[in-house]
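Run folding on both entries below.
>entry_1
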Amino acid sequence: MAIKNPEELNFYLDKTLSEETMQVLRSARKKNIPFFVTPYYASLLDVTGSGYDDKAIRSYILYSKELVETFGEIKAWEKEDEVEAGKANAAGWILPEGQNIHRRYPEVAILIPDSAGRSCGGLCASCQRMYDFQSQRLNFNLKELYPKESWPMKLKKLMVYFEEDTQLRDILTTGGDALMSRNATLRNLFDAIYKMALQKKKANENRPDGEKFAEIQRIRLGTRLPVYLPMRVDDELISILREFREKASKIGITQLIVQTHYQTPLEMTKESREAIKRIVSAGWIVTNQLVYNVAASRRGHTVALRKTLISNGVVPYYTFSVKGFHENYAVYVPIARSMQERTEEKFYGLLNGEEQKEFVEILRNHIPYIKEVNLFLQNKKRPFIATDRSVLNLPGIGKSMTFRLIGITNEGKRILCFDHDTTRRHSPVIKESGKIYITENKSILAYLKQLEDLGEDIKTYQSIWEYTEGMTEPKFKLYEYPEFPFHATEIVNHVKN
């Protein structure tokens, strides 16, 4: 049930794609760039050209010539994703053999199962893991991705890594896409996580205070299927999510999150809204990561998205700046625009400390919580709630928006000096790493011309030139870890000496 080549897509869109676009897509196919779009998602496009603005959707399924030119030579932007057995990654972590665990920070690690979860409901044109699709560690050969006989044994070994780590308390299962895995695969994964978390908790009973390991508190599933294919959220999946929450909460796993990825309010259809309601009814909180590409960066777009998400039970988490390599030239937004949006638009939804606490209590104590969230919005007279942080994933040191302008190239591209996020813990390697210097792949003038081509009045963006430095925002209270009822060890293991 997927469109897998340009001709199919053009057929479903009443042959409305331009010849120029088709040539780019055909070139992409020749270079073996995966092409995968669900008919449901394609149906969200306006084929009349006069109905509504669907540019934010099109920018996700139509590849740019820069991406096609670069594919095959894409480098890993996040250097820590380059893993060699027995060697520390760029963030200093020593990981199990294979490509199943990715890690930047002490508390959290990404888990990528050997399953259909190594694929997605579609390949996003600005995918953060395009490097992995290029290497075919992630792909769309679904039958070949189904778990092999060796996977249960491998999963046990991976769980040992989490159990024996002194600091890990947060597992983000993603890919690809966590919900591309079959329900049986997800059930087995949850069973393995539960057993590991329980064993880690019991082992702490024999450790003195101050030497206890961090226990598992948060489980997340990274998925775009509520957007790409909301029908995937079926009765069996909801039953699995509910059953896991009920038993996991008894051993201290109290933060259960489905982390999805809406790009535009147009994606919140009747079907998608129903999928979110079902997930929330199972006792999980749904959060969102927006990729801040050109189409999504237009004035008011992110405000409208936050408003739509919050009112339907989805809590914004991150607003990601697109990585600045050449393959993302067409969709990259200069960091100054992120700072402008944060200062001039996002501030309308800010909450003070007490209001944040009240909002978090609603999310955690009501199943489902959607009605109460909307009452909160009315009572506080807020059009939306700005629960997200604007960040850029930096090579080696994780997410940050702490930067300053230090220079400009002859082409007008800004040279930025980034520092790490001081609001969170990092691996010990951060003490050795210096600042990160990035030359943006696009000048502000070129970006403004793109906006003008999209029909924007660029006079409303003129203050963008003033944003030359920034500081990473503090976390919203929802995303803070609970305090342990004991003193955990400060020793960090699984890290290079």
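>entry_2
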Amino acid sequence: MASDKKKNPLDLDSKLTIILSAILLSLTIAGLILFFVLPDPDVNKPEEIQVSDIREPTPEPEPEPEPEPEPEPVTYPAPGYDFLEENVYIEIPGLERSYTIAWVSDIHMITDHEAGDVSQESLETVESRYNTLSITPDGVHGDELWPEIVNYLNYNDFDAVIFGGDLLDYCSTSNMETLKAGFNILKYPSDRILYIRADHDYGSWYSDGSTGFDDYKAQALHAELDGDDYTHKYIDFGEFIIAGVNNSIKKPGGEQMEVLRDLYSRGVPVIAATHVPYYSQTDPTLEMLSMLVRNKIYYWAPNSENYIPDADMWEYLNMLYDEDSNCAYVLAGHMHAAWEGEIREGLTQHIFSPAFIGAIGVVHVVPEGSVPETDTDIADISAN
């Protein structure tokens, strides 16, 4: 029987050593692989952000808006009628600049040539006035002249426009529609247009019950035009005031007087605007002209047939005639002839020629001492 070979303990140790060496080598190789293949965990690690470093994101700037194109300048047609300009110069001490104001009165426009708001019985009278009163010396009637007046006003640049009454010969729907058509295209703002009405603007004399037109309808049509506010018949330029008197064939009513008292107490120069003129205490030529043109005293005066002041009217007139009055000038119409002169010492009144002869007033309000020399003879532009 063969004997078993004894196991050599060295052989077992050698095997263990080899196994452990193999395991260690495998781990080493695996570590190297992980080192070179796996990414560094700190490479993309975000930096710690302090709370104080947090900022609101900056908004993207909004694109600049496209500039709006400049509006095309409005051009107005030149008038086709060659108007006679009646220049008036008013000096006011201390003015910072000069002002130019247009005056238009006494067109006596007539458009009704067939029965409508005019009664059948009045048509002959209306037609006669159309052909003898509301017409220029060269044959242009008032209803044709009015659009040319509007063109003239728009073509020029005035600081204000005064309509001094009797734009209409009488009130009717047709006359008012024609007036409104021109009024609506005036380029001037409403606070720079002063329309002081007179008896012809409101009068509905050629109507009767059969036409359905009356004084109430006349008042309503005027209110549609510009409001016709009796309490606001003035323009305040700051340096001076133009104070209008509405329907000046009558004394100013209570509301008008309240406004006039205020205007004349503000301590600035006042230019009075009236349809019916005022008498002169110093110049007899006004009475001479009135008798020649109208065959009577056709303005407010103690000896007038139509316009005799009562106590209430004298309260207003004394605002002008008192020596310490701040009234700087008086502008008027109604006479159908031009006149200029003092109505008391130091106070001048200018009565304009009627527009129905093709005349428009141009009032220059200028600083003291800046009136140009002129040789205009207003007697040459008086109506016959």
